């Protein structure tokens, strides 16, 4: 398979579905934060500094309910433990020749969706490049932060008058994950994906959505270890 | 800005950076992992994407046909565009467009 070089602009282009998926979620985070009593600057700072969707919504609940600072911080940290696996998994697919000189900077943007998009690109034969990772990550980060800022200042109701647009944007991330799944799908990966899916459903129904995600990833990866 | 909020945000943000960047920086210059660790890491990506898709679609699965139909339409559009154009971006945009249109048509 011929591997092509990818530029910063390629990464920015590949971030488009993530940008469109992130913006409305970040927008609703901005609205929720100001409704919970935080200022516009505080809401924006949470997105700028934490940059992790689900744990930011949890931060609102914890902080507005008066949870102790350390309890709140460690709960948020525990929610994002899965990100520990993304870097090594990505670099394994990138190959030994991949350079990581600027990883300290672009890795900040390695969210679930950015990881999925980058991995899908490698699976389709694209060569790993740091400029591409910067473009992909920057598009997603800018969308997340700007969505929060707009949501915090505009307040609720801006998208409520457009339910079809709201619904379409809300389907962007499931659609992205499905497209990414199709892009990496091979006969070899079917057992891994099936085990991950089953464990996610079981974990979500029995415990919580966050536990379901962690259990699904670990169970799927372990299924890959057992597989010959 | 309250110091509690800033402290929590900074702790969570620094931890996020550590989770995302340090494993890559620690991996630099080493040979690719083999054996069980190699298989584990190779399977992490597909497992993560499969997990995230299920987690994202699960709240939409309902017995209410008016809410389920847009999900089916959007999913079908993603599948159709992927198998005809092999483009993640186009398939995603088509899925969201079909979902939004179905919501609009159903009212």
Distance between the termini of chain A: 24 Å
| Major β-sheet profile of chain A | none
Tell me the number of strands of chain A.
Answer: 0
- Ranges of chain A where pLDDT stays below 50 over 5 or more residues in a row are none
User: Main sheet of chain B, how many strands, which sense, barrel?
Assistant: none
Number of domains of chain B: 3
- Strand fraction of chain B equals under 5%
Number of distinct helices of chain B = 4
Largest interface, C-beta closer than 8 angstroms, per-chain residues: A-B, 101 and 75 residues
**Strand segment tally of chain B:** 0
What are the secondary-structure elements of chain B, in order, as H or E?
HHHH
Offer a few descriptive terms.
heterodimer; A: mainly alpha; 13 helices; globular; B: 107 residues; 82% helix; 0% strand
Walk me through the topology.
The complex is a heterodimer of chains A (228) and B (107).
Chain A: H1 8-14, H2 16-35, H3 40-49, H4 53-64, H5 69-79, H6 83-94, H7 103-106, H8 112-123, H9 130-154, H10 163-170, H11 172-184, H12 190-206, H13 209-226
Helix pairs in contact in A: 1-9, 2-3, 2-4, 2-9, 3-9, 4-5, 6-8, 8-11, 12-13
Chain B: H1 3-27, H2 35-57, H3 65-85, H4 88-106
Helix pairs in contact in B: 3-4
């Amino acid at each position: 398979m011929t591997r092509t070089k990818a530029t910063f602009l390629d990464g920015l282009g590949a971030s488009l579905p993530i940008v469109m998926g992130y913006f409305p979620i970040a927008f609703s985070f901005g609205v929720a934060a100001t409704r919970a009593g935080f200022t516009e600057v505080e809401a924006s700072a949470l997105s700028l500094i934490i940059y992790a969707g689900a744990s930011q919504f949890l931060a609102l609940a914890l902080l507005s309910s008066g949870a102790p600072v350390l309890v709140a911080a460690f709960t948020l940290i525990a929610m994002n433990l899965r990100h520990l696996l993304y870097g090594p998994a990505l670099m394994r697919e990138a190959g030994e020749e991949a350079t990581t000189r600027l990883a300290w900077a672009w890795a900040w943007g390695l969210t679930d969706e950015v990881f999925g998009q980058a991995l899908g690109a490698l699976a389709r034969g694209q060569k790993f490049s740091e400029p591409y990772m910067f473009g992909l990550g920057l598009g997603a980060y800018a969308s997340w932060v700007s969505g929060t800022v707009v949501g915090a200042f505009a307040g609720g109701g801006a998208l409520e008058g457009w339910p079809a647009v709201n619904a379409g944007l809300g389907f962007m991330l499931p659609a992205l994950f499905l497209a990414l799944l199709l892009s990496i799908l091979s006969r070899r990966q079917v057992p891994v994906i099936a085990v991950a899916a089953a464990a996610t459903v079981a974990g979500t129904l029995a415990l919580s959505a966050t536990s379901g995600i962690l259990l699904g990833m670990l169970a799927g990866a372990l299924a890959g270890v057992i597989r010959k | 800005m309250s110091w509690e909020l800033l402290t929590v945000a900074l702790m969570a943000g620094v931890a996020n950076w550590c989770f995302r960047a340090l494993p890559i920086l620690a991996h630099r210059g080493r040979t690719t992992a083999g054996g069980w660790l190699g298989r584990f890491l190779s399977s992490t990506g597909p497992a993560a994407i499969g997990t995230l898709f299920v987690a994202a679609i699960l709240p939409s699965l309902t017995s209410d046909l008016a809410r389920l139909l847009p999900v089916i339409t959007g999913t079908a559009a993603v599948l159709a565009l992927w198998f005809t154009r092999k483009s993640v971006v186009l398939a995603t945009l088509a899925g969201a467009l079909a979902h939004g249109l179905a919501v609009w048509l159903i009212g």
